[in-house]
Each structure stands twice: as structure tokens, then as C-alpha cells.
Amino acid sequence: METPGSQSSLHRANLERVVRAVRAAGSLTQAEIARTTGLSAATVSNIVRELKDLGTVDVRTTSAGGRRARSVSLSSDAGIVVGVDFGHSHLRVAVGNLAQQVLAEEAEPFDVDASADQGFDRAEKLVTRLVAMAGVNRGKIVGIGLGVPGPIDVETGTLGSTAILPGWRGTNPREELADRMGVPVHVDNDANLGALGELVWGAGRGAADLAYIKVASGVGAGLVINGQIYRGPGGTAGEIGHITLDESGPVCRCGNRGCLETFAAARHVLPLLAVSHGTDLTMPRVVQLAREGDPGCRRVIADVARHIGNGVAHLCNLLNPSRVVLGGDLAEAGELALAPIRDSVGRYAIPGAARGLTLVPGALGGRAEVLGALALVLREMGDRVLLGPVNGTDRTDRTDRG
Q: Which of 54, 198, 249, 309 could form a Cys-Cys staple with 204, CB 3.0–4.6 A?
């Protein structure tokens, strides 16, 4: 057996450190691995060579700063991960490999009022179909990331009280899907996964601290602090939709009055245009009409954005993020939404926080959450599946994953 502090246990720890750095970033040069892990260049070179021989990583020649470099990523043959995103009106699934390549992806309409059993039946069928489309064996799945539009208890995985998925209240999505698929499942709310998706693949790349603002059926923020999703002890961090803007305002689903959500969420905003534009209007259509010059839709977009900017200003004053990424349908409005948000941030945030802020639209659109679910698995899965035998344990033993 390995003894703590022994040469073998130190070597194992260094292997895990390198693998953890690579799977968190997607790909790193050997020089970047050395900086990230604090290991010497020689140690990193030896470890990368060993991991390549194990089939854990792929190494290719690239360039960094105009000089040749060796880029390291997890092997595309080491396994596959699955992302499942339940939205207010959709179900989206993606299948990817450990090298962060998306192999198959599909979305279909989903009735938010359906029961949890119906939702998981649909998800299981879609996962099975996409895994087959990707041409890989279902046994290669090493984990599933699951996103839901509601608060998740980070310890138990139970869905908290939510008016967005009323038929799911009190369920445990993590256990339900794990029982069906036979693999570890990691669950989080959609705003956190949107933040993770943009951090790894999109407009948040390179930022250590950011907030991802999702405006859809609700309003929420995914918070990244020092490169990690911050959830809070109860999993409710980032609920900026329930910042009070008007104590005499409309009653919110949370029971309070005048929450930001009552001024910005789609179900509160669309009725404002019902008389002039009809009752079948959707937020994507409002954004499209606003971009085409419709004055009513432009006014509504500007009003919503100013309210969102108030919430962003609160975040700036409390957490001082370096970057805010606007997601959801509102991001497609571009400067029609970004300019009013900047105006509100400039008005309500302290000057130092406002000056240091970069506000950008999301780069991934509606894919942010499902890609974040893939990234969640890559960050949370255990190392045994990647590092081969340990004390005689076969590499295919996955009992410590999750």
C-alpha cells in the first residue's frame, strides 16, 4: 500500500494534479500546466509522457507566443460525458468526449408543466439516441451533467421550492437520472451551468471572476469566483431576480413584492405588448422586432435592460466581478440591451466597481447551459477513471467517481 508522504504517493498526487488542471481547462500547454500546478517543467514533461502512454491525454504540437509548444488535452478515447439541460420550454442534450469536443447535440420542445417522470423518460431516450448517433458505446459514459431551472440543495441534490417546475418540487433529479442511466450524475441550476459553459467555451474564457446573467422565465446569476462556481452553503447564491426594486410592486412567485424578476422575466414582460402585438408573442420575437426597429419592442427591451442593470450594479458593489456575461434571449438584442445595462451600472454601482467591469453578450446562446453541464462533469468526475490501476484496482472500476 502507498504510504502518505512516500515517493509513490507523491507521484500519484502529481499525476492527479496535472490531470485535474487539464480537465478543468480543456487543454493546456506544458508551460501552462507548470504554472497552474506549481510543478517544475521537468516534472510536468515526465508526467505528461506517462499520461500519454496510459492513454489518458493527447499531446499535439502548437504555438504559444510565437514559439512551438506542446498542447495537452484529455484523450478523446478515454470516455464520453453527457449534458442534459431542462429549460422552461425545452430539453437539450449534448454528448462530448473528454477532450471537450461535442460529438452530438439536439434540442426538442419540453412542457415545463410535465411531471418529473415524463421529463426523465424523454431525457433518457434522447441521451440513448445521441450516444448512438455519436457512434460510441453507452458503457463509455463516465458521467452526466444535469441542469434544471430551480434551486438545488448542493448536499442532497434535491430540487427546492420552485414555481417554474411545480411538478418536480421535492424530487431528487440527481438520483433519478443516475438510477436510470447507471452512471454518476452531477446536478446544478441553469444559471450556474450557463456561467460554467461561457467560462470554458465562450465569452468568459480567461476570466477568473465573472457573473453570468440569465434572463428567461426567471432571472438568475451564475457566479464564478477564482475560477470556481460559487453556490453558497444552501445552493441559492446568485438569485438576483429577487432583489427588491419596488416594495409596492407586483407580487412575485417568491411571495415578495416588486422583485427584479417581476420587471424583467418573460412572463411579466410579454403582457405589456399583448394589446399591440398579440398574445402569441415570445421573447425571441420581441428581440427580433426590436432589432428591426419596432418602437414598442425597443422600449420594452430598454426598460428590462435598465432593471437588469440595477441588479448587476448590486453584484458589482458586493462581489466586484471583472466580467459580466449577459445570457438568455436578451443577449441577442446586442447594444439595445447592453447600453441601458451599462447606464444603470454607471448610476447605481460604486465608481471603482463600474470602471473595472467588462459587460459582454454570451457567445453560446441557448447552448450555454448544456455545454456547462458537460464542463461540470469534466470538473467533478473522479480521477480513477483516467489514471489507470491503483494498488491493483482495474482502470474500469469507477466506484469513486462523482
A: 198
The single residue listed with the C-alpha cell 447507471 is 182
Burial 332-364 (b: 16+ CB within 10 A, else e): bbeebbbebbbebbeebbeeebbeebebbbbbb
Cβ contact 314:239 at 8 Å = no
Q: Are 197 and 364 within 8 A, CB to CB? A: yes
Give the tens place of pLDDT for each residue, 345-393: 999 999 999 998 999 999 999 999 999 999 999 888 766 556 654 433 3
pLDDT in tens, 155-166: 777 876 555 667
pTM assigned to the model: 0.84
Tell which residue, 342, 347, 348, 350, has the closest CA to residue 320: 350
Report whether 18 contacts 52 (CB < 8 A).
no
Q: How far, in Å, are 24, 102, 200, 226, 356 from residue 206 at the CA level?
A: 12, 21, 9, 11, 15
User: Could you tell me if 119 and 159 are in contact, meaning their C-beta atoms sit under 8 angstroms apart?
Assistant: no
Q: Which three cell numbers stand for residue 326?
A: 449577459
Within 13 A of 130's CA, how many CA atoms are on the CB side?
25
Q: What does the angle CA 172 – CA 174 – CA 179 come to, to the nearest 5 degrees?
A: 100
At 95, list the grid cell. Answer: 454528448
